[in-house]
Amino acid sequence: MKTIDTPNAFKRLQQDLAEFAKERDWDQFHNPKNLVMALNGEVGELNELFQWLTTEQSENFPAEKQEALAHELADIQLYLLRLAEKCHIDLEAACDRKMALNRAKYPVEKCFGKALKYNEL
């Protein structure tokens, strides 16, 4: 069930990333292992932005840090897209398949309002 129609947004970004890397001769460094390591580093930077915030603060992220948050989220998305490309994964199709699996594993009538894993429902 698609609700957002962004035709080829992932593919466009992947092409931009591939060109960016090629122009800098960085493709030689963009193997799956290195990309996973870089992705992990960016997730760590995202963690730092939320570290020590209360739940309320994290839900009302400080306005002065919004741009930093946007940059970290973008870094994560870009590395993820590059990794998917290098691993020959159509990320949009994979997300659609995963959402279908999640809907089957977490039917509304069983999980509504519950924070349980599917095998505990």
TrEMBL record:
It comes from Enterovibrio qingdaonensis. Pfam families: MazG-like. InterPro entries: dCTP_Pyrophosphatase, DCTPP. It comes from the Bacteria. The lineage of its organism: Bacteria, Pseudomonadati, Pseudomonadota, Gammaproteobacteria, Vibrionales. This is Nucleotide pyrophosphohydrolase.
